[in-house]
Amino acid sequence: MHLVLARLPDAPPGPRGLSLFLVPKFDEDGSAGRRAGPPQARPAPSGGSEPHEVGSVGVRSQVHCERIEEKMGIHASPTCVMRFDEAAASLVGEPGKGLNAMFVMMNAARLLVGLQGIGLLDAAWQKANAYAQERRQMRAPGSASKAGAADVIALHPAIQRILQTQRAWIDAGRVIAYRTALELDTQKHHPEATQRDVAARWCSLVTPVLKSAWTEQAFTGASACLQVFGGHGYVREWGIEQHVRDARVAMIYEGTNEIQAIDLLVRKTLPDGALSLQGLLTELEAEPGQSPRTRQALQAFGAFVREQVVPHTSASDTAPDQAFWLADDFLRALALLLMAWAWDRLAAAPQHNATAHAAFWRWVWPEFGMRMSMMNTTVSVGQSAPAML
Question: pLDDT tens digits, the chain, 389 residues: what are they?
């Protein structure tokens, strides 16, 4: 089966003209083309194969694989260029509503890609951590080893910083992913409409954050883990270089990370004057166990969005694209706030990773202040020209 976005003959241009079609590999009774008009397609090339009967399966659809794409990584998951020569298709949903139907799948896929990022980062961390416990090189600062003896590199501060930083991202990402899974169930099954709405708000706002921030960290973090191996990191037998290559595509999957940031700010935050976002921030702040610095940061971010972002982006004729300049920093700031919330939750657990907890506040959290400063600059400049920034 192939799900294909295509245009009916009388469809208008642009995204509103796209409809969703289901193209089977075999049309069992030849009725697919009668149920809905076929999508427009290129004429079949000369010498192209004609549809033929295959036993009791049905008529072979005019669907052809042109070539397998050669990709940077994920070689075990090939993609290909498909050609549809007026293949019979059934309409899925309403004409012109193809993107709406597709996004039912896309939203779930974005969460899965976020989980892919967490998983790849964890796999890279596991390899780097194991290697660091075995590889010996130089004496670590303050080492008690005998003169001339080398220490395992896991004792060197530079390696500890790399590994602990990735652990901080992995553990926080898991907490946020687990919470999102619970909210998905609440959104679907809770008997009270109010609770379903609250859960839907979480899923709507957190999905682009989880997808974007953790796929980006999967790539940069896997690259940092490769650094632990030194020259061995580029040797395939260790497996770490594969994680770097495989993680890169997740930043592109299901809408690039830049699109996720635009979706979060322009489509999900600004239209209601940031009321949904304020509700999420209030919810996080009210949860028990939140540290004073997390509460303070939630309040500061909420005030900034309410007093600066919304007024300067909702009615800005001089800089109508200002929200788009803010979007990337906005998403990263919210991701870091969610991580702070997650680590406050983890800190309450009896056997939490105190080392990774400290690493988060020491080496990850400072980015929040940087992102806030960058957004302040963008808002205060009030111009869309990048040279002015």
Answer: 888 999 998 899 888 899 999 998 887 765 555 444 444 433 334 344 444 444 456 778 888 889 998 888 888 888 899 998 878 888 998 999 898 888 777 888 999 999 999 999 999 999 999 999 999 988 888 887 777 789 999 999 999 999 999 999 999 999 999 999 999 999 999 999 999 999 999 999 999 999 999 999 999 999 999 999 999 999 988 999 999 999 999 999 989 999 999 999 999 999 999 999 999 999 999 998 899 999 999 999 999 999 999 998 865 555 688 999 999 999 999 999 999 999 999 999 988 899 999 999 999 999 999 999 999 999 988 644 455 44
Is 254 an active-site residue?
Answer: yes
The CA distance from 370 to 307, in Å, is 19
Angle among Cα 40, 46, 47 to the nearest 5 degrees reads 120
d(C-alpha 38, C-alpha 32), whole Å: 9
Do the two domains 2-40+52-96 and 100-384 of this chain adopt the same fold? no
> 183, 254, 283, 307: which one is catalytic?
254
What class, spelled out in words, does domain 100-384 have in CATH?
Answer: mainly alpha
Q: Could you tell me which CATH number the domain at 2-40+52-96 has?
A: 2.40.110.20
Query: For the chain, which residues make up each domain, given as ranges?
Result: 2-40+52-96, 100-384
**Which tokens hold the place of 324?**
């788009």
pTM, 2 dp: 0.86
Angle between helix axes 292-304 and 322-347 (nearest 10 degrees) is 160
